[in-house]
């Protein structure tokens, strides 16, 4: 069995990293969120009592009670004062790493000689502790403990300070733990580095509550800037938006088919039909071009038929001239029909 199995490694849940940090430091389930919340409420009450010494009607006191607690909130965050108060139960003390206190100066000169460090950045807390004769990063955002060499420890602490972390040195006697005894006998060898874990959305982000309501999940998703919330389609059917789009497409196709198959009036009225369709503006441009081509073909076809009929009539008149028709009348008829043909040709070419 791997030596890492003896570690107490806690998976990150919501914003309860302060609780994870303390239990990883002590290597046991010593504190719950309720325990820390109780300590935070006690500290809030003590602060209110001190502020009330100048009178509950004073402006300072009224401003103080209107402010939210600085020691805890309902997301699971706890202040360094709450963590220090919790460690006092085990006679453990926090000292800022970059302070001028003699113990802090000793830690700065020889960080590998200390027992543990607690690191904080914004709302996140994690522990770096020596177990056996080795140092481990017990961050709850990692999939497991990360082995840190003595040489790298000072570099890592300097890196955390550069990134804005607040570092505290833990002094005192720690409770006995199984991992410390096993690592004294058999030091750990890390084959692969742990990976960062992702916080599951299904886990509670509020103390004593959970979020299983799909409407609440949708609201949280939108409020977090993740775009639209895609609710699972349990029935397997199309969404309302898809059905509306399908209906719109079907109606448009029906209107197009009815306008294409509807018989168009012949003659000059065809041009007015085309103009009315152009004035609509809502019809598809491809449909307009198709209708125009169809009208032009019909006009051309009717003009060609009329030309052929006139030409055939003139040929018949030519043949009838031998039957005694006046040459003057025939010439006049030909001239009139030729003028009509020229007029028709000019219209078709225009």
Care to describe what's here?
The protein is of the alpha+beta class and 350 residues long. The protein has helices spanning 17-26, 33-51, 59-66, 80-88, 102-109, 150-162, 178-185, 214-223, 240-261, 269-280, 285-320, 327-349, and strands at 93-96, 116-121, 124-131, 134-137, 146-148, 166-171. It has a 6-stranded antiparallel beta sheet, sandwiched between helices. Helix 2 crosses helix 4, helix 10 packs antiparallel against helix 11 (285-320) and helix 11 (285-320) packs antiparallel against helix 12 (327-349). The N and C termini lie far apart (96 Å). InterPro entries: Ataxin-3, Josephin, UIM_dom. It catalyses: Thiol-dependent hydrolysis of ester, thioester, amide, peptide and isopeptide bonds formed by the C-terminal Gly of ubiquitin (a 76-residue protein attached to proteins as an intracellular targeting signal). Keywords: Hydrolase, Nucleus, Protease, Thiol protease, Transcription, Transcription regulation, Ubl conjugation pathway. This is ubiquitinyl hydrolase 1.
Topology:
Elements: H1 17-26, H2 33-51, H3 59-66, H4 80-88, E1 93-96, H5 102-109, E2 116-121, E3 124-131, E4 134-137, E5 146-148, H6 150-162, E6 166-171, H7 178-185, H8 214-223, H9 240-261, H10 269-280, H11 285-320, H12 327-349
Antiparallel strand pairs: 1-6, 2-3, 2-6, 3-4, 4-5
Helix pairs in contact: 2-4, 10-11, 11-12
């Amino acid at each position: 069995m791997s030596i890492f199995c003896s570690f107490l490694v806690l998976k990150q849940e919501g914003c309860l990293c302060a609780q994870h940090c303390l239990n990883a430091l002590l290597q046991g389930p010593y504190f719950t969120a309720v325990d820390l919340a109780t300590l935070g409420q006690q500290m809030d009450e003590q602060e209110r009592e001190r502020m009330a010494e100048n009178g509950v009607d004073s402006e300072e006191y009224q401003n103080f009670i209107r402010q939210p607690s600085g020691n805890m909130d309902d997301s699971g965050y706890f202040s360094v004062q709450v963590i220090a108060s919790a460690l006092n139960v085990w006679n453990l003390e926090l000292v800022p790493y970059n302070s001028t206190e003699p113990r802090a100066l000793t830690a700065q000169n020889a960080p590998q000689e200390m027992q543990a460090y607690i690191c904080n950045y914004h709302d996140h807390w994690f522990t770096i502790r020596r177990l056996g004769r080795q140092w481990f990063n017990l961050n709850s955002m990692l999939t497991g403990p990360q082995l840190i060499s003595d040489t790298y420890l000072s570099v890592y602490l300097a890196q955390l300070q550069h990134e804005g972390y607040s570092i505290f040195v833990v002094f005192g006697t720690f409770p006995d733990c199984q991992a410390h005894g096993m690592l004294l006998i058999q030091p750990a060898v890390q084959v692969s580095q742990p990976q960062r874990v992702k916080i599951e959305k299904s886990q509670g982000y509020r103390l004593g509550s959970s979020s299983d309501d799909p409407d609440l999940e949708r609201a949280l998703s939108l409020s977090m800037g993740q775009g639209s919330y895609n609710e699972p389609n349990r029935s397997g059917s199309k969404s309302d938006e898809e059905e509306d789009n399908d209906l719109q497409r079907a109606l448009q196709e029906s209107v197009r088919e009815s306008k294409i198959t509807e018989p168009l009036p012949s003659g000059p009225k065809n041009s007015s039909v085309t103009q009315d369709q152009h004035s609509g503006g809502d019809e598809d441009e491809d449909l307009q071009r198709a209708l125009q081509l169809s009208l032009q073909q019909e006009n051309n076809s009717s003009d060609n038929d009329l030309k052929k009929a006139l030409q055939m009539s003139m040929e018949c008149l030519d043949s009838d001239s031998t039957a005694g028709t006046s040459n003057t009348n025939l010439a006049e008829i030909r001239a009139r029909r030729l003028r009509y043909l020229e007029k028709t040709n000019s219209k078709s070419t225009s």
